[in-house]
Amino acid sequence: MSRTVIRGGLVITASDEIHADVLIEDGRIAALAATGTTAAESWTAERTIDATGKYVIPGGVDAHTHMELPFGGTFASDTFETGTRAAAWGGTTTIIDFAVQSVGHSLREGLDAWNAKADGQCAIDYAFHMIVSDVNQETLKEMDLLVEEGVTSFKQFMAYPGVFYSDDGQILRAMQRSAENGGLIMMHAENGIAIDVLVEQALARGETDPRYHGEVRKALLEAEATHRAIKLAQVAGAPLYVVHVSATEAVAEIARARDEGLNVFGETCPQYLFLSTDNLAEPDFEGAKYVCSTPLRPKEHQAALWRGLRTNDLQVVSTDHCPFCFTGQKELGRGDFSKIPNGLPGVENRMDLLHQAVVDGHISRRRWIEIACATPARMFGLYPKKGTIAPGADADVVIYDPHAEQIMSVETHHMNVDYSAYEGKRVTGRVETVLSRGEPVITEREFTGRAGHGVYTPRSTCQYLL
Q1: Confidence of residue 1 (pLDDT cuts 50, 70, 90)
Q2: pLDDT, tens only, 392-451
Q3: Residue 105 DSSP class
């Protein structure tokens, strides 16, 4: 039996803050005891970690990443190996990535392909959602089988006609199926048909710079699609999880549905909380670095997102990590913003940015852990194995220095991408040591993990329903 004791830290979970020592046995949390008590003092272990003056927090659960995603004739630049290593550096110990069904192919083919990409490569534990691009009778039957196997969430797109797009009838059928099998539909809510018209008109006017990406993907078209998705879910009697919410008007739709007692949930991402259309408008094509969908919004939308996180109208902060290098990838859209690959790097930055939000007074420490660890684990059927520090939970633990200062930069990050979306941003707080199932992955700011340590983790159905 291998034992580790973490001594002297402030243990923070979604529900508690306590000065406690933590005992880890064989990869799991065995016990907690108040620091200095007889019980804690009696523990012996092969490894002792001194967390005096530090936070002891659950490893982050990033429920929205895209490693190696094919998009726009290229691939996301992080592999499962580089991406999970970077996640660990940022205090995230579980990712849920997206397996992709291609039109004309089965869900099983897509899932098998993504399992093959990730197998033996990951530094931390991982699971999969399934992108459903082709709803038909066979697909619907496969959804039942995947839920039984622990792939319990299915993403659909109201955007990207001709690629991932599903029409309202296809969405309704998938929602009806998930109402029966316990799956959770995740929705990219933007009116892609209308957006394509606006893209065509903008390009015809010679409006080709990155900033027009944000102008054609209007907040009202996010709100309209969010409203429509909610009503379709209501008709189907199914829960709904709206991904990467970026606009005040979309938050209002989700809040209204939740006030009506519906199982409607919302996720936002750090880029919408900390970046804006000012970044998209950066000169010399630099704005291309910030092209993602939903797009960055004017700064005034940020207040509604922070308020939604405080009131629990938004429950989760994930990254939608989907990095493309500026050189050679983002540049595909020079002269035509619609050809810029959509996505930002962020899997390494999320926990630190949200701690900065604690420092800035936007959220509390426990809310930080709730939106970044506990709720994503509950939402996607991983709790209490993941997302908390409690007896029986996996020993996914981060020793976090709340006083260390760092400047975010491409020079120091570990994501496989040639720029930082937060270049030059000064934040307070930094990951010091990371354990994944009790094994040190980051040890006092050194990578001590390995590809293949991370294991595939089947999930139960949503544990967050009203």
Answers
A1: confident
A2: 999 999 999 999 999 999 999 999 999 999 999 999 999 999 999 999 999 999 999 999
A3: S
320 Cα distance to chain centroid: 5
Question: What φ, ψ does residue 23 adopt, rounded to 5°?
Answer: -105, 130
> Pseudo-torsion of CA 185, 188, 191, 197, nearest 10°?
-140
The distance of Cα 318 from the centroid of its chain, to the nearest Å, equals 3
**What is the DSSP annotation of 240-254?**
EEE-S---HHHHHHH
Which pLDDT belongs to residue 466? 86
Cα distance between residue 270 and residue 263, in whole Å:
24
CA distance 341 to 328: 11
Q: What's the average model confidence in pLDDT over 67-79?
A: 95
Residue 83: name the closest of 323, 269, 301, 284 by CA: 323
Distance in angstroms (rounded) separating the CA atoms of residues 131 and 203? 30
355 three-state secondary structure: helix
Question: Of 229, 237, 317, 265, which is closest to residue 464 (Cα–Cα)?
Answer: 265
The DSSP result for 107-138, as a single string, is HHHHHHHHHHHHTTT-SSEEEEEEE----SHH
In the predicted model, what is the mean pLDDT of residues 253-266? 98
Instruction: Check if the beta carbon of residue 5 is closer than 8 Å to that of residue 43.
Output: yes
Find the helix or strand (DSSP H, E) in which 422 lies.
none
Please give the share of the chain, as a percent, with pLDDT higher than 70. 100
Q: What count of other Cβ atoms lies within 10 Å of the Cβ of residue 136?
A: 12
pLDDT attached to residue 79: 98
Distances from the Cα of 448 to the Cαs of 123, 315, 443, 453, 456, in angstroms? 10, 32, 6, 11, 20
Per-residue pLDDT tens digits for 98-140: 999 999 999 999 999 999 999 999 999 999 999 999 999 999 9
Q: CA 347 to CA 47: how far, in whole Å? A: 29
Of the candidates 153, 167, 163, 308, the one whose C-alpha atom is nearest the C-alpha of residue 232 is 167
